[in-house]
Design brief:
Shape: rod-shaped
Strand order of the largest sheet: 1-2
Largest sheet: 2 strands, antiparallel
Bound molecules: zinc ion
Order of helices and strands: EEHH
Number of helices: 2
Helix content: 55-70%
Radius of gyration: 21 Å
Number of domains: 2
Amino acid sequence: MAIISCPFCQHQISDKSRVCNQCDGDIGAMSNEQIASKHRVLKIKKNQSIQVQTFMALLLFVGGFSLWYWEDKPGESWLSLGGQGLIVVGFIWYIVNRARLIFNKRR
Ligand SMILES: [Zn+2]
């Protein structure tokens, strides 16, 4: 018995089970090729969502930077502090998403 991930919901299931116990997806009715193509589509979709999040992280970073940059009294107002917070969050989020993108490509 081997553990595979469900082509519908990615839940870990046994390759002997014909129906996913997580989402009730009918795996038994699918050919290996259909399952493989389902996995490909899921992977592409995941890739796209990571790319959207990477873009949003960049926007956060740039937005935070402009808040911080255009504020008259840097380091004092909540606007400047908020900007610095956004820079940090955007930067970390960006790095995390780049790592997820690489990890997703390798699988
Ligand atoms: Zn499932």
